[in-house]
Design goal:
Blueprint lengths: L2 H24 L10 H23 L5 H9 L8 H22 L1 H6 L3 H8 L8 H20 L21 H14 L9 H13 L15 H19 L2
Helix pairs in contact: 1-2, 1-4, 1-6, 2-8, 3-4, 3-7, 3-10, 4-9, 7-8, 7-10, 9-10
Membrane topology: Multi-pass membrane protein
Main location: membrane
Organism: Flagellimonas profundi
Length: 242
C-alpha cells in the first residue's frame, strides 16, 4: 500500500459510495429513489469517512486534488508529489464511476431523463450563474481545507498514555463534508473536489448510456477551478494567521 495505491483505493471508496448514493436516490426503480437531499449528504459524508479510514495511514488520505494543492500551498506537503497524488485520485474516481454504472445498469436503462443520469456522475448548478456557482465551489472548498489545516493530533503526555481515536480519527473530516453539503451544497451539488467531478464526467461521456444527454462541458471547469481557488485561499489565510 504505497501512497499512490492508497490514493487510488481511498478515492475509489469515496466515489463508489458517493456516486452510489447519487444513483440510489436519483435513478428509477431503486429502493432509495427520491429519498432526498439528507440521504445524499449523509451518504457522501460516510463515503468520505470510508476513504479516509483506509487511505489515511498510508497517504494522509487527500483523496482530492484541491486538498493536495492546498496542503502544498500551505507548506504541509511537497509540490513534487502533487502530480502523482492527482493522477491516483483521478484513476480511483473514474474506476469508481464505471463500477457504479455497472451496478446500476438496469436502473440507468429504466431512467429516461439524461440530466438525471449525468447527475449520478457529476454536478450541475441548481440555477446557472457563473459567478455565484464558482463562488459556491470556492467557499465550500475553503471551509473544507481551512478546517483540515487546523486539525490537531493527540499529544502524548506520558509514555504509557493511549492517544488518538484509531479509525474514528477520520470522523472530523466526514462531519465537515456533511456540514458543507447541508449548508452550502444546494446551489451546485458541492463538488469541492476536481477529481470527484471531472473524472466521473469523463466516464459519463464514454459510457454507452441509453438516452444520454449533454455532458455539461460548459460547466465542467467550475468544479475544477473553484475547489483549487478555495483550497489555495484557505492555505494563504492559514499561513497569514500563523
Amino acid at each position: 500500500m504505497t501512497p499512490f495505491v492508497s490514493e487510488i483505493v481511498g478515492t475509489f471508496l469515496l466515489m463508489v459510495l458517493g456516486c452510489g448514493v447519487n444513483a440510489n436516490v436519483s435513478l428509477q426503480k431503486t429502493y432509495g429513489n427520491s429519498s432526498g437531499w439528507i440521504v445524499i449528504t449523509t451518504g457522501w459524508a460516510f463515503a468520505v469517512y470510508t476513504g479516509v479510514v483506509v487511505a489515511g495511514p498510508h497517504s494522509g488520505a487527500h483523496i482530492n486534488p484541491a486538498v493536495s494543492i492546498g496542503l502544498a500551498v500551505a507548506g504541509e506537503f511537497p509540490w513534487s508529489e502533487v502530480p502523482t497524488y492527482i493522477l491516483a485520485q483521478f484513476i480511483g474516481a473514474m474506476f469508481a464511476a464505471f463500477c457504479v454504472w455497472l451496478v446500476n445498469k438496469d436502473h440507468f436503462n429504466a431512467t429516461e431523463d439524461g440530466g438525471t443520469k449525468r447527475g449520478v456522475f457529476c454536478t450541475a448548478p441548481a440555477i446557472p450563474n457563473i459567478f455565484t456557482n464558482l463562488f459556491s465551489e470556492v467557499l465550500g472548498t475553503f471551509v473544507l481545507v481551512f478546517s483540515v489545516l487546523y486539525f490537531t493530533d493527540a499529544v502524548l503526555s506520558t509514555e504509557d498514555a493511549i492517544i488518538g481515536l484509531g479509525s474514528l480519527g477520520a470522523l472530523p473530516v466526514s462531519l465537515i463534508v456533511w456540514g458543507i453539503g447541508l449548508s452550502l451544497g444546494g446551489t451546485t451539488g458541492y463538488a469541492i473536489n476536481p477529481a470527484r467531478d471531472l473524472g466521473p464526467r469523463i466516464v459519463h461521456a464514454l459510457l454507452p448510456l441509453k438516452n444520454k444527454g449533454s455532458n455539461g462541458w460548459g460547466y465542467a471547469w467550475i468544479p475544477v477551478v473553484g475547489p483549487i481557488l478555495g483550497a489555495s485561499i484557505a492555505a494563504w489565510i492559514a499561513l497569514a494567521l500563523q
